[in-house]
Design goal:
Elements (H helix, E strand, L loop, with lengths): L7 H11 L2 H12 L5 H12 L25 H14 L6 H4 L6 H16 L3 H18 L1 H7 L9
Helix pairs in contact: 1-2, 1-6, 2-7, 3-7, 4-6, 4-7, 6-7, 7-8
């Protein structure tokens, strides 16, 4: 199990370095928000990915009208599964990242975003904002609380 302490300055530095400029202002304001739930972070992450729309009327980008429509795992769910695997399990996949001293916020964002982007053949910039928001939720509520609240992710099939 990985335990990383929430450090807003370190997180904001990572946002400045990693999140694309068109998402940066939104992500920074959400990171700085003091009273926001995990669900709100996830909702904003889905909007950044184009999996849901904000109030207003922006067209969704994940429309799949082919024979596989509705069967694929949404990117946002895959992000949550990767973060759960990293923070809440002892899986071999993230063994090296769990070693003491190997986990900075910037590295964690990069590691998860790379795994997600690679799985979906997407550019890193498409997912890094969403990964940052989901990771922020973990860091703000605490690893133990996050893992307990998301136990169902351990049993979901990909």
């Amino acid at each position: 199990m990985l335990d990383v302490v929430y450090d807003e300055r370190q997180l904001l530095d990572a946002v400045e370095a990693l999140v694309p400029s068109h998402q940066r202002v939104r992500v920074i304001s959400l990171v700085k928000e003091k009273d926001i739930s995990e669900e709100e972070y996830e909702s904003n992450a889905r909007e950044l990915l184009g999996e849901s729309r904000p109030k207003g009327g922006i067209a969704l980008t994940n429309a799949d009208l082919g024979p596989s429509a509705g069967k694929a795992v949404p990117v946002s769910v895959y992000i949550k599964k990767e973060i759960y695997d990293l923070f809440c399990t002892n899986s071999q996949r993230y063994r090296d990242e769990r070693k003491e001293g190997a986990a900075t916020v910037r590295n964690l964002i990069t590691i998860v975003a790379t795994a997600v982007a690679g799985n979906f053949s997407l550019p890193l910039g498409v997912v890094v904002g969403a990964v940052t928001l989901c990771l922020t939720a973990v860091l703000k509520i605490g690893t133990n609380a996050y893992c307990e609240a998301n136990k169902a992710l351990a049993t979901r099939n990909e």
